[in-house]
Amino acid sequence: MSDVHTLSVVVPVYRGETCLDQLVDAIAPMIHELETPGGRRMRVAELVLVHDCGPDRSDEVIRALAEKHDWVRPVWLSRNFGQHAATLAGMSSSGGDWVLTLDEDSQHDPSDVAKMLDVALSAQADVVYGEPVNAPPHGSMRNLASRMAKRSLRWMTANSDAPRFSSFRLVLGEIARSVAAYAGSGVYLDVALSWVSRRVATCPVTLATEVRPSGYGLRSLLSHYRRMVLTGGTRLLRVVSVVGVLFAMLGFSFAVVIIGLRIFGEIPVAGWTSVMVVALIGLGIILFAVGIVAEYVGVAVNMALGKPLYLMVADRGQGPLGREVSDQQ
């Protein structure tokens, strides 16, 4: 075994046309052996750029970078599968002792991996998340919503590591590739990692203050949150069961009170208002419970149907479709 830790850097690319060159320039010095603050030896063995079929010309930039640098490896997906699926595709194609994942927008500094590696080895951790010491450059309202979402996930999924989740993560290579092999359709990457990781740690990092505007809108963020909840476990189903029992007890108590008042003649006229209130509340709880169950059933059905998490293909620009584009030009 070599005492030099090799790293595979995995970057899902969706709209990276304007920022990939800057990212590659930041990683280039790390392909040569260097020493971490803790005295460990490391180097970046490869940069895996996963093209997630975005709307810009990221594919052309990836081809140019791969031609220029032999350590840049492109991975092509058949269509847009999303950030986590693209990251898993890159993990499955990696070969380093460790896998570093980060965003394409240069929000994260790749050189922080040296500190993260020291933390991983000192804590004997399988996964190390970069923990920002400054506020992400997304606006105060979004940052507040993100913190609240992570805290609620800790309760709803019974996962104590949920507040640590981040796209800037260092994962032991064999763990990363194994998770990429078994993860099912719709699974949230960090949830899947938490299932098999023996120990998870964090490392303080500083986020860049000037980055490209986020491509995540309100709808995609809510979808992100929904997937974390549904793939994080079945605790929410148990909550629904408890709520159902509480409302059943409340309904029974209310029925006893109504019957007692009726026996003693203190209800001169049947209460239409109380009937409607009980009916509406009961119907609302039932529909809420059915909706949550339906969401879990939907996730299970998608997995049972065999829907692929991702599908890697050859470079479209080098195949029959690419020839058609060349003829038109």
Automatic annotation (TrEMBL):
<feature type="transmembrane region" description="Helical">
    <location>
        <begin position="270"/>
        <end position="297"/>
    </location>
</feature>
<feature type="domain" description="Glycosyltransferase 2-like">
    <location>
        <begin position="8"/>
        <end position="152"/>
    </location>
</feature>
<keyword id="KW-0448">Lipopolysaccharide biosynthesis</keyword>
<keyword id="KW-0808">Transferase</keyword>
<keyword id="KW-1133">Transmembrane helix</keyword>
<dbReference type="InterPro" id="IPR050256">
    <property type="entry name" value="Glycosyltransferase_2"/>
</dbReference>
<keyword id="KW-1003">Cell membrane</keyword>
<keyword id="KW-0472">Membrane</keyword>
<dbReference type="GO" id="GO:0016757">
    <property type="term" value="F:glycosyltransferase activity"/>
</dbReference>
<feature type="transmembrane region" description="Helical">
    <location>
        <begin position="236"/>
        <end position="264"/>
    </location>
</feature>
<protein>
    <submittedName>
        <fullName>Glycosyltransferase</fullName>
        <ecNumber>2.4.-.-</ecNumber>
    </submittedName>
</protein>
<keyword id="KW-0812">Transmembrane</keyword>
<comment type="similarity">
    <text>Belongs to the glycosyltransferase 2 family.</text>
</comment>
<dbReference type="Pfam" id="PF00535">
    <property type="entry name" value="Glycos_transf_2"/>
</dbReference>
<keyword id="KW-0328">Glycosyltransferase</keyword>
<dbReference type="InterPro" id="IPR029044">
    <property type="entry name" value="Nucleotide-diphossugar_trans"/>
</dbReference>
<dbReference type="InterPro" id="IPR001173">
    <property type="entry name" value="Glyco_trans_2-like"/>
</dbReference>
